[in-house]
Amino acid sequence: MMEYHENECLGYFAELMKTCKSGAQYERVFHLIVYRIARLYRCQAVAIVLIDPKTEYLNIVNNYGLSYTFCNEFRKRLATGAIGELLWTGKPIVISDSGNEPDRTDEVRLEHAIGSCICLQIAVDHRTLGYLYAGSSAKHVFTEDDVLPMQAFADIAGMAFFKSQLYEENLRLERIDRETGLEKYAPFLERVRWVLKRAEASGEPFSLILLDVDNAKSITNTYGPEASVEMLRQLAGIVQAGHGHLQSVARYGFDEFIVMLEQCAPAQAIEYAALLRKRVEEAHFTRHLLQSTISIGISSHPDNGTTVDDLLVTAKNAVFEAQRAGKNRVFYYPCERRITGPDLAGKDPGAAERAPDDLPPGASS
Q1: Regarding the domain with residue range 185-358, which homologous superfamily does it belong to in the CATH classification?
Q2: Mean per-residue pLDDT, 300-309
Q3: Does domain 6-170 have CATH number 3.30.830.10?
Q4: Which of 89, 293, 306, 342 reaches 20 to 30 Å from 321, CA-CA?
């Protein structure tokens, strides 16, 4: 861990927050973050890497120590490796000695060989925006002790970017996503918070379902963005027509939808998700008769959490598990144990503890 003065670090945070609250332009905040981190840790390179919402490629939007050519040519796909896990679950990447983790080092490093590095998720309202990267040529510059201050830098970056987006959103004053016809995420989230309060008073369950299109990027690359958007619009129609308990659907990301099933217990949510997965798999989209699959994560109140934050984190983690198991899967965590079934993702240490016929109804397709 690189030693630094606490007052200097606090001064940087105060400077960043003042800049963040004084305007809606996030670029200045990003610039300050990368240069302040480089100074604190004497980094070889620092970068803010964001997800392009149209292509879902990772792009370097601000950096210190990287060449223009490298940043201009950097286009990295989302994956299920260390970076993919970071983006989906928020699990930090800390490599103190690159010699001990050569494979993971090769996956995460940017341009230069490194001795140590750290990567932190940038997210707002549990929607991942990208990640913050810092690397050093020396070993043991970054340790687990650096996660807390570095995450604070990442969180400020996320707030600045979100504030800029919110400002632009308020200019439009629209609640409906034009491309899909679905509700936008911000009003959807307010609806979820209202349903949570009612559920706490009544004791009724409800469930959240997060789904990600498995091959959206390849469709965009092959048939163009118009075909991709048309497919998403048709997919939204399938989701909206899916269940009697369906209360609302929103667009969560470019190719991700989130569903709230009110008064819906886990077994019903699993049944709905399994049916939805099958309907999408059997459907043909656009004039090109495209086929697609979806990975689905489920979280239910109160089994998987009693706050909106807990439910969203669980759903995101479940989607990652579904993708890691091979995609075109449904994943659900019953209470504290991670138990899976034929239509659920993969194998799990807890799976052997329950017989297949003891799974909740609808767990298999």
Answers
A1: Reverse transcriptase/Diguanylate cyclase domain (3.30.70.270)
A2: 94
A3: no
A4: 306
> CA-to-CA distance for 64 and 187, rounded, in angstroms?
37
Tokens 């600045």 label which residue? 160
The CA-based dihedral angle spanning residues 200, 90, 218, 111, taken in that order and rounded to the nearest 10 degrees: 170
Mean pLDDT of the chain: 86
Average confidence (pLDDT) over 289-295: 96
Q: Record the pTM.
A: 0.77
Give backbone dihedrals phi and psi of 122, rounded to 5 degrees, phi first: -105, 120
d(CA 126, CA 87): 10
Domain locations in the chain as residue ranges: 6-170, 185-358
Distance CA 220, CA 231 (A): 10
What pLDDT does 242 receive? 65
Other C-beta atoms closer than 10 Å to the C-beta of 298 total: 31
